[in-house]
Amino acid sequence: MGESYDRGMAIRRTVLGDAHVDRAEANKTDFDVPFQELITESAWARVWARDTLPLRERSMLTLAILAALGLDGEFAMHVRATARTGASEEDVMELLLHVAIYAGVPRANHAIAIAKKTFAEMREAE
């Protein structure tokens, strides 16, 4: 792997945490190695690692997009990442209000349920 991959892996670990990335790496097979490399080098190294937006704002944008698209598993994963990105529970509620207006109340309502559950799990784990 090259410098881009290393930069992507570093930011991926910063945002998602070592435990999550270690699990993903341990579950990697020959079949999905190309995909893991793609997301590490494109999403993490070329987008998340840019210095134009702080991690908090990138986190909030990501959450809003995932909620609007109804991508539950990814949404919950990025709610957990707020512990490392600096986005607060209040930030998440604010972005979900925007999701309600621009992507639909049912999408926001569903994402709120996921966020509530995920934040509760995070508090229990502390």
UniProtKB/TrEMBL annotation:
Its EC number is 4.1.1.44. Residues 35-116 form the Carboxymuconolactone decarboxylase-like domain. This is 4-carboxymuconolactone decarboxylase. PANTHER family: 4-CARBOXYMUCONOLACTONE DECARBOXYLASE FAMILY PROTEIN, CARBOXYMUCONOLACTONE DECARBOXYLASE-LIKE DOMAIN-CONTAINING PROTEIN. The keyword Lyase applies. It comes from Wenxinia marina DSM 24838. The lineage of its organism: Bacteria, Pseudomonadati, Pseudomonadota, Alphaproteobacteria, Rhodobacterales. It holds the Pfam family CMD. GO terms for molecular function: 4-carboxymuconolactone decarboxylase activity; peroxiredoxin activity. It comes from the Bacteria. InterPro entries: 4CMD/NDH-1_regulator, AhpD-like, CMD-like, Decarb_PcaC. Keywords: Lyase.
